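Q: I have 393 residues here and want to know how they pack in 3D. Can you give me a structure?
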Amino acid sequence: MEEKSRSGRGSAGDAQPRGVEQIIKAAIDRGASDLHIKAGDVFRARIDGKLVPLTKQRLTPEQTRAIALRLMPNEDDRNRLDKLHEYDCSWGVPGVGRFRVNILRQRSSFMIVMRVIPFDIPTIESLKLPSVLTTIAAAERGMILVTGITGSGKSSTMAAILNHINQNNQKHVVTLENPIEFLHRDINSSITQREIGVDTDDFRAGLRAALRQDPDVIVIGEMRDVETVDTAMKAAETGHLVISTLPTPDAVATVSRVLAMFPPEEQEIARLRFAETLQAVVAQRLLPRADGHGRAAAVEVLICTAAARAIIRDAGRAAELYDYIREASEQYGMQTFDQHLMDLVGDEVITYETALAAATKPADFELQMRTLRRRSRAAEPAEAAQASAPRKR
Protein backbone atom coordinates (compact mmCIF):
# COMPACT_ATOMS: atom_id res chain seq x y z
CA MET A 1 0.00 0.00 0.00
CA GLU A 2 1.32 3.44 -0.86
CA GLU A 3 1.16 6.48 1.42
CA LYS A 4 -1.47 9.08 0.69
CA SER A 5 1.09 11.76 -0.15
CA ARG A 6 4.79 12.10 -0.81
CA SER A 7 5.11 14.71 1.91
CA GLY A 8 3.91 12.09 4.41
CA ARG A 9 1.23 14.34 5.90
CA GLY A 10 -1.79 12.31 6.98
CA SER A 11 0.09 9.09 6.23
CA ALA A 12 2.34 6.61 8.02
CA GLY A 13 5.22 8.88 7.10
CA ASP A 14 4.47 11.37 9.88
CA ALA A 15 3.26 8.60 12.22
CA GLN A 16 -0.26 10.00 12.41
CA PRO A 17 -2.40 7.38 14.19
CA ARG A 18 -4.97 7.02 11.41
CA GLY A 19 -2.26 6.54 8.78
CA VAL A 20 -0.43 3.91 10.83
CA GLU A 21 -3.64 2.06 11.59
CA GLN A 22 -4.67 2.09 7.92
CA ILE A 23 -1.39 0.48 6.87
CA ILE A 24 -1.61 -2.09 9.66
CA LYS A 25 -5.19 -2.93 8.70
CA ALA A 26 -4.20 -3.28 5.04
CA ALA A 27 -1.49 -5.74 6.08
CA ILE A 28 -3.97 -7.81 8.10
CA ASP A 29 -6.39 -7.84 5.18
CA ARG A 30 -3.59 -9.38 3.10
CA GLY A 31 -3.08 -12.11 5.71
CA ALA A 32 0.04 -10.72 7.43
CA SER A 33 1.35 -12.56 10.49
CA ASP A 34 3.94 -9.93 11.48
CA LEU A 35 4.76 -6.28 10.76
CA HIS A 36 8.22 -4.69 10.79
CA ILE A 37 8.56 -0.94 11.37
CA LYS A 38 12.16 0.32 11.30
CA ALA A 39 13.88 3.67 11.03
CA GLY A 40 15.46 4.00 7.59
CA ASP A 41 13.19 1.40 6.02
CA VAL A 42 9.64 1.08 4.70
CA PHE A 43 6.80 -0.71 6.47
CA ARG A 44 7.14 -4.45 5.85
CA ALA A 45 4.83 -7.37 6.57
CA ARG A 46 5.33 -11.13 6.66
CA ILE A 47 2.75 -12.60 4.31
CA ASP A 48 2.76 -16.35 3.60
CA GLY A 49 6.18 -16.52 5.21
CA LYS A 50 7.77 -13.80 3.03
CA LEU A 51 8.71 -10.30 4.24
CA VAL A 52 7.21 -7.89 1.70
CA PRO A 53 7.17 -4.06 1.56
CA LEU A 54 3.88 -2.27 2.20
CA THR A 55 4.91 1.34 1.53
CA LYS A 56 7.48 3.25 -0.53
CA GLN A 57 8.52 6.08 1.79
CA ARG A 58 11.19 5.24 4.34
CA LEU A 59 10.58 6.11 7.99
CA THR A 60 12.84 8.53 9.85
CA PRO A 61 14.08 7.79 13.40
CA GLU A 62 11.68 10.45 14.73
CA GLN A 63 8.70 8.87 12.96
CA THR A 64 9.56 5.41 14.25
CA ARG A 65 9.95 6.77 17.79
CA ALA A 66 6.53 8.42 17.53
CA ILE A 67 4.96 5.10 16.49
CA ALA A 68 6.68 3.32 19.41
CA LEU A 69 5.20 5.86 21.83
CA ARG A 70 1.79 5.32 20.26
CA LEU A 71 2.00 1.57 20.94
CA MET A 72 3.17 1.74 24.58
CA PRO A 73 0.28 1.22 27.02
CA ASN A 74 1.10 3.55 29.93
CA GLU A 75 2.63 6.93 30.65
CA ASP A 76 5.44 5.64 32.91
CA ASP A 77 6.80 3.41 30.14
CA ARG A 78 6.51 6.18 27.55
CA ASN A 79 8.52 8.53 29.78
CA ARG A 80 11.43 6.09 29.91
CA LEU A 81 11.37 5.05 26.24
CA ASP A 82 14.78 6.57 25.47
CA LYS A 83 16.37 4.50 28.26
CA LEU A 84 14.94 1.18 27.04
CA HIS A 85 16.77 -1.36 24.91
CA GLU A 86 13.93 -3.91 24.56
CA TYR A 87 10.28 -3.64 25.50
CA ASP A 88 7.33 -6.05 25.18
CA CYS A 89 3.64 -5.18 25.32
CA SER A 90 0.32 -5.88 23.67
CA TRP A 91 -1.69 -3.36 21.63
CA GLY A 92 -5.08 -3.40 20.01
CA VAL A 93 -7.56 -1.15 18.23
CA PRO A 94 -11.20 -2.07 17.50
CA GLY A 95 -11.65 -2.68 13.80
CA VAL A 96 -7.90 -3.10 13.26
CA GLY A 97 -6.66 -5.97 15.41
CA ARG A 98 -4.64 -7.10 18.42
CA PHE A 99 -0.86 -7.45 18.43
CA ARG A 100 2.08 -8.65 20.46
CA VAL A 101 4.60 -5.81 20.22
CA ASN A 102 8.37 -5.83 20.66
CA ILE A 103 10.18 -2.48 20.60
CA LEU A 104 13.97 -2.64 20.25
CA ARG A 105 16.95 -0.52 19.40
CA GLN A 106 19.17 -1.07 16.38
CA ARG A 107 21.87 1.32 15.17
CA SER A 108 20.80 3.62 18.03
CA SER A 109 17.29 4.09 16.59
CA PHE A 110 14.04 2.21 17.12
CA MET A 111 12.54 -0.80 15.42
CA ILE A 112 9.12 -2.33 16.13
CA VAL A 113 8.00 -5.88 15.40
CA MET A 114 4.27 -6.59 15.72
CA ARG A 115 2.84 -10.11 15.79
CA VAL A 116 -0.83 -10.32 14.76
CA ILE A 117 -3.08 -11.97 17.36
CA PRO A 118 -6.42 -13.18 15.95
CA PHE A 119 -9.54 -12.10 17.84
CA ASP A 120 -11.06 -15.57 17.49
CA ILE A 121 -9.62 -18.29 19.71
CA PRO A 122 -8.32 -21.06 17.43
CA THR A 123 -9.45 -24.66 17.79
CA ILE A 124 -7.58 -27.89 17.20
CA GLU A 125 -9.87 -28.47 14.21
CA SER A 126 -9.53 -24.98 12.70
CA LEU A 127 -5.73 -25.22 12.81
CA LYS A 128 -5.94 -28.70 11.20
CA LEU A 129 -3.82 -30.17 13.98
CA PRO A 130 -3.68 -33.94 14.58
CA SER A 131 -6.82 -35.16 16.38
CA VAL A 132 -4.67 -36.86 19.04
CA LEU A 133 -4.22 -33.37 20.55
CA THR A 134 -7.72 -33.68 22.01
CA THR A 135 -6.49 -36.72 23.95
CA ILE A 136 -3.34 -34.87 25.02
CA ALA A 137 -5.44 -31.90 26.22
CA ALA A 138 -7.48 -34.27 28.41
CA ALA A 139 -4.44 -35.11 30.60
CA GLU A 140 -4.99 -34.49 34.31
CA ARG A 141 -1.36 -33.83 35.22
CA GLY A 142 2.15 -33.64 33.82
CA MET A 143 3.80 -31.36 31.25
CA ILE A 144 2.71 -30.67 27.68
CA LEU A 145 5.38 -28.83 25.68
CA VAL A 146 4.56 -27.06 22.40
CA THR A 147 7.80 -26.43 20.50
CA GLY A 148 9.11 -24.93 17.29
CA ILE A 149 11.21 -22.10 15.97
CA THR A 150 10.04 -18.48 16.20
CA GLY A 151 6.97 -17.91 14.04
CA SER A 152 5.96 -21.57 13.85
CA GLY A 153 2.54 -21.03 15.45
CA LYS A 154 3.29 -22.27 18.98
CA SER A 155 1.06 -19.64 20.62
CA SER A 156 -1.90 -20.57 18.41
CA THR A 157 -1.52 -24.28 19.14
CA MET A 158 -1.23 -23.66 22.88
CA ALA A 159 -4.34 -21.44 22.72
CA ALA A 160 -6.21 -24.22 20.88
CA ILE A 161 -5.27 -26.76 23.57
CA LEU A 162 -6.40 -24.33 26.28
CA ASN A 163 -9.62 -23.66 24.35
CA HIS A 164 -10.34 -27.40 24.27
CA ILE A 165 -9.86 -27.61 28.03
CA ASN A 166 -12.09 -24.56 28.53
CA GLN A 167 -14.85 -26.05 26.35
CA ASN A 168 -14.82 -29.53 27.88
CA ASN A 169 -13.70 -29.31 31.53
CA GLN A 170 -14.55 -27.52 34.74
CA LYS A 171 -11.11 -26.39 35.86
CA HIS A 172 -9.19 -23.35 37.05
CA VAL A 173 -6.55 -22.36 34.51
CA VAL A 174 -3.85 -19.81 35.41
CA THR A 175 -1.80 -18.39 32.53
CA LEU A 176 1.49 -16.46 32.75
CA GLU A 177 2.11 -14.55 29.53
CA ASN A 178 4.45 -11.85 28.24
CA PRO A 179 2.32 -10.24 26.96
CA ILE A 180 -1.22 -11.68 27.07
CA GLU A 181 -2.12 -12.69 23.53
CA PHE A 182 -5.40 -14.54 23.06
CA LEU A 183 -8.15 -13.35 25.38
CA HIS A 184 -9.99 -16.39 26.76
CA ARG A 185 -13.44 -15.94 28.26
CA ASP A 186 -14.72 -18.28 30.97
CA ILE A 187 -16.83 -21.06 29.43
CA ASN A 188 -16.82 -24.30 31.42
CA SER A 189 -13.50 -23.45 33.05
CA SER A 190 -12.33 -20.35 34.93
CA ILE A 191 -9.42 -18.72 33.09
CA THR A 192 -7.11 -16.39 35.06
CA GLN A 193 -4.69 -14.60 32.70
CA ARG A 194 -1.70 -12.77 34.24
CA GLU A 195 0.69 -10.58 32.28
CA ILE A 196 4.39 -10.47 33.20
CA GLY A 197 5.42 -7.00 34.33
CA VAL A 198 1.82 -5.92 34.84
CA ASP A 199 0.14 -8.55 37.04
CA THR A 200 3.30 -10.26 38.35
CA ASP A 201 7.01 -9.47 38.30
CA ASP A 202 8.35 -12.36 36.23
CA PHE A 203 7.67 -15.96 35.22
CA ARG A 204 9.37 -17.45 38.28
CA ALA A 205 7.46 -15.27 40.76
CA GLY A 206 4.18 -15.79 38.90
CA LEU A 207 4.67 -19.55 38.76
CA ARG A 208 5.46 -19.81 42.47
CA ALA A 209 2.38 -17.71 43.24
CA ALA A 210 0.21 -19.77 40.87
CA LEU A 211 0.77 -22.86 43.02
CA ARG A 212 -1.09 -21.03 45.84
CA GLN A 213 -4.02 -20.05 43.60
CA ASP A 214 -5.81 -23.44 43.47
CA PRO A 215 -4.96 -24.13 39.82
CA ASP A 216 -5.73 -27.30 37.89
CA VAL A 217 -3.84 -26.13 34.80
CA ILE A 218 -0.89 -23.70 34.61
CA VAL A 219 0.05 -22.20 31.23
CA ILE A 220 3.54 -20.66 30.98
CA GLY A 221 4.26 -18.51 27.92
CA GLU A 222 7.81 -19.84 27.63
CA MET A 223 10.23 -21.76 29.86
CA ARG A 224 13.36 -19.64 29.60
CA ASP A 225 15.56 -20.75 32.50
CA VAL A 226 16.30 -23.67 34.78
CA GLU A 227 14.41 -22.15 37.74
CA THR A 228 11.19 -21.96 35.72
CA VAL A 229 11.66 -25.51 34.39
CA ASP A 230 12.36 -26.82 37.90
CA THR A 231 9.27 -25.13 39.37
CA ALA A 232 7.14 -26.31 36.43
CA MET A 233 8.26 -29.91 37.05
CA LYS A 234 7.41 -29.52 40.75
CA ALA A 235 3.95 -28.30 39.77
CA ALA A 236 3.50 -31.34 37.51
CA GLU A 237 4.80 -33.65 40.24
CA THR A 238 2.18 -32.31 42.67
CA GLY A 239 -0.72 -33.13 40.34
CA HIS A 240 -1.08 -30.08 38.09
CA LEU A 241 -1.17 -29.97 34.30
CA VAL A 242 1.51 -27.59 33.00
CA ILE A 243 1.48 -26.36 29.39
CA SER A 244 4.39 -24.34 28.02
CA THR A 245 6.51 -23.65 24.94
CA LEU A 246 10.17 -24.03 23.99
CA PRO A 247 11.99 -22.80 20.85
CA THR A 248 13.22 -26.30 19.96
CA PRO A 249 12.81 -27.83 16.48
CA ASP A 250 11.58 -31.34 17.33
CA ALA A 251 10.79 -33.79 20.13
CA VAL A 252 14.29 -35.23 20.50
CA ALA A 253 15.87 -31.77 20.67
CA THR A 254 13.26 -30.74 23.27
CA VAL A 255 14.32 -33.48 25.67
CA SER A 256 17.99 -32.58 25.19
CA ARG A 257 17.37 -28.83 25.64
CA VAL A 258 15.41 -29.19 28.88
CA LEU A 259 18.02 -31.44 30.47
CA ALA A 260 20.90 -29.24 29.26
CA MET A 261 19.45 -26.34 31.29
CA PHE A 262 20.42 -28.12 34.52
CA PRO A 263 23.99 -28.13 35.94
CA PRO A 264 25.89 -31.35 35.11
CA GLU A 265 25.69 -32.62 38.70
CA GLU A 266 21.86 -32.31 38.63
CA GLN A 267 21.17 -33.74 35.20
CA GLU A 268 20.74 -37.36 36.26
CA ILE A 269 17.96 -36.61 38.75
CA ALA A 270 16.49 -34.02 36.35
CA ARG A 271 16.33 -36.72 33.65
CA LEU A 272 14.37 -39.02 35.97
CA ARG A 273 11.99 -36.24 36.99
CA PHE A 274 11.46 -35.08 33.42
CA ALA A 275 10.78 -38.63 32.21
CA GLU A 276 8.05 -38.99 34.83
CA THR A 277 6.39 -35.59 34.40
CA LEU A 278 6.46 -35.15 30.60
CA GLN A 279 3.09 -36.01 29.03
CA ALA A 280 3.64 -34.96 25.43
CA VAL A 281 5.70 -32.87 23.02
CA VAL A 282 3.96 -31.20 20.09
CA ALA A 283 6.59 -29.79 17.71
CA GLN A 284 5.59 -27.89 14.59
CA ARG A 285 6.77 -26.05 11.49
CA LEU A 286 4.81 -23.85 9.10
CA LEU A 287 5.33 -24.59 5.41
CA PRO A 288 4.02 -22.83 2.27
CA ARG A 289 0.91 -24.45 0.84
CA ALA A 290 1.00 -25.90 -2.66
CA ASP A 291 -1.73 -23.53 -3.85
CA GLY A 292 0.32 -20.50 -2.78
CA HIS A 293 -2.28 -19.33 -0.25
CA GLY A 294 -1.08 -19.36 3.35
CA ARG A 295 0.93 -21.96 5.23
CA ALA A 296 0.22 -25.44 6.61
CA ALA A 297 1.46 -26.87 9.91
CA ALA A 298 3.67 -29.94 9.84
CA VAL A 299 3.48 -31.50 13.29
CA GLU A 300 5.56 -34.02 15.22
CA VAL A 301 3.86 -35.63 18.23
CA LEU A 302 5.52 -37.53 21.07
CA ILE A 303 3.25 -39.09 23.70
CA CYS A 304 5.01 -40.30 26.83
CA THR A 305 4.09 -43.96 27.11
CA ALA A 306 5.95 -46.28 29.49
CA ALA A 307 8.34 -47.18 26.66
CA ALA A 308 9.02 -43.50 25.85
CA ARG A 309 9.71 -42.73 29.52
CA ALA A 310 12.21 -45.62 29.66
CA ILE A 311 14.08 -44.18 26.66
CA ILE A 312 14.17 -40.66 28.18
CA ARG A 313 15.42 -42.02 31.52
CA ASP A 314 18.43 -43.67 29.86
CA ALA A 315 20.87 -41.08 28.46
CA GLY A 316 22.44 -43.75 26.26
CA ARG A 317 19.16 -44.40 24.43
CA ALA A 318 18.41 -40.83 23.32
CA ALA A 319 18.88 -41.73 19.64
CA GLU A 320 16.08 -44.32 19.91
CA LEU A 321 13.36 -41.77 20.59
CA TYR A 322 12.87 -40.73 16.95
CA ASP A 323 12.50 -44.34 15.78
CA TYR A 324 10.10 -45.08 18.63
CA ILE A 325 7.81 -42.20 17.61
CA ARG A 326 7.76 -43.50 14.03
CA GLU A 327 7.07 -47.11 15.02
CA ALA A 328 4.38 -46.25 17.60
CA SER A 329 2.42 -43.98 15.27
CA GLU A 330 -0.47 -46.32 14.51
CA GLN A 331 -0.86 -47.62 18.06
CA TYR A 332 -0.73 -44.31 19.94
CA GLY A 333 -1.34 -41.58 17.35
CA MET A 334 2.23 -40.29 17.45
CA GLN A 335 3.98 -39.10 14.31
CA THR A 336 7.35 -37.82 13.19
CA PHE A 337 7.68 -34.72 11.02
CA ASP A 338 8.57 -36.90 8.06
CA GLN A 339 5.45 -39.06 8.48
CA HIS A 340 3.23 -35.98 8.56
CA LEU A 341 5.08 -34.47 5.58
CA MET A 342 4.28 -37.61 3.57
CA ASP A 343 0.59 -37.22 4.44
CA LEU A 344 0.63 -33.53 3.48
CA VAL A 345 2.23 -34.34 0.12
CA GLY A 346 -0.23 -37.18 -0.48
CA ASP A 347 -3.15 -34.81 0.21
CA GLU A 348 -1.55 -32.20 -2.10
CA VAL A 349 -1.43 -29.65 0.73
CA ILE A 350 2.29 -29.00 0.18
CA THR A 351 4.62 -29.86 -2.69
CA TYR A 352 7.10 -32.72 -2.64
CA GLU A 353 9.98 -30.22 -2.97
CA THR A 354 8.78 -28.26 0.08
CA ALA A 355 8.45 -31.46 2.10
CA LEU A 356 11.89 -32.73 1.11
CA ALA A 357 13.51 -29.44 2.13
CA ALA A 358 11.78 -29.59 5.54
CA ALA A 359 12.33 -33.30 6.24
CA THR A 360 14.28 -34.34 9.32
CA LYS A 361 15.93 -37.17 7.40
CA PRO A 362 15.78 -36.12 3.71
CA ALA A 363 17.41 -39.27 2.29
CA ASP A 364 15.02 -41.59 4.15
CA PHE A 365 12.07 -39.36 3.24
CA GLU A 366 12.97 -39.45 -0.45
CA LEU A 367 13.29 -43.26 -0.38
CA GLN A 368 9.93 -43.69 1.38
CA MET A 369 8.17 -41.37 -1.09
CA ARG A 370 9.62 -43.31 -4.05
CA THR A 371 8.41 -46.58 -2.52
CA LEU A 372 4.92 -45.19 -2.00
CA ARG A 373 4.75 -43.91 -5.56
CA ARG A 374 5.83 -47.28 -6.99
CA ARG A 375 3.17 -49.05 -4.94
CA SER A 376 0.58 -46.51 -6.06
CA ARG A 377 1.46 -46.99 -9.73
CA ALA A 378 1.42 -50.78 -9.33
CA ALA A 379 -2.02 -50.67 -7.71
CA GLU A 380 -3.61 -48.54 -10.45
CA PRO A 381 -3.84 -51.28 -13.18
CA ALA A 382 -5.31 -53.76 -10.68
CA GLU A 383 -7.92 -51.23 -9.56
CA ALA A 384 -8.79 -50.39 -13.18
CA ALA A 385 -9.17 -54.07 -14.07
CA GLN A 386 -11.39 -54.68 -11.06
CA ALA A 387 -13.56 -51.67 -11.96
CA SER A 388 -14.02 -52.86 -15.59
CA ALA A 389 -14.69 -56.52 -14.75
CA PRO A 390 -18.34 -57.63 -15.28
CA ARG A 391 -20.27 -58.01 -12.06
CA LYS A 392 -21.68 -61.39 -11.13
CA ARG A 393 -25.45 -61.46 -10.98
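Q: Anything worth noting?
A: The two ends are 67 Å apart (CA to CA). The chain is about 40% helix and 25% strand.
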